[in-house]
Amino acid sequence: MKTERIRTGDDSYTLRVPELDEHYHSIHGARAESMHVFIDAGLKALKNKPSIHLLEVGLGTGLNCLLTAAHQQPETTIRYTALEPFPLEKEILDSIAPENEPERGRFWQIHHTPADGDAQITPGFLLHRSMQKLETLALHDPVDLVYFDAFAPRVQPELWTTEVFRLLYDLMSDNSILVTYCAKGDVRRAMQQAGFQVERLPGPPYKREMLRARKNS
Ligand SMILES: C[S@@+](CC[C@H](N)C(=O)[O-])C[C@H]1O[C@@H](n2cnc3c(N)ncnc32)[C@H](O)[C@@H]1O
Fold it and tell me: Which atom of ligand 1 is least distant from the CA of 137?
């Protein structure tokens, strides 16, 4: 699918998919949204866990992955499994690559990781890229944290169902969490039907709420 670069409210870039009239992040601030939803409400909520297996649904531009590597606690190790069945083309990646180091180097490490291969992004951060689609996902090891960053339910309703959330629930460890920017009532109920305890949290700039789902032991 064709994408075009957009500068967002906090001066960071996102991509727009004209065919779907959909963006990869909030137009009010891609970086601010990613920090708020995935790092602050997700990664930081597991700050006392020495080793985290993280699953991202939709690697896309790699922004969540970059910010996770930048905000990792020194004493924590992270194994980051990123699903991306539709990788972005080099030309569009070139247009959004960060200018500053070490982000630029890490950005290209992430995007040069072979499909279904691994790369050591920092000493304690191992990325595994997977071409698997969420709907049919199979993993060997339980997941402690899910970044659910699929396109919105309007665009991909098949990814926001009770069935898909149950699949994730079954792949997750006890006391694990899932975070998403979406706060729709239907999505919250689908998560609850899958077995999660769901909280509504304040959303990123210009968004009232987001969701955090917990799998309790
Ligand atoms: C909202 S964008 C992701 C944004 C990304 N996290 C970022 O920071 O750029 C949604 C992503 O989900 C991917 N995707 C689409 N269908 C998928 C599927 N069935 N399973 C997993 N990922 C999918 C898309 O290719 C796209 O990269």
Answer: 20
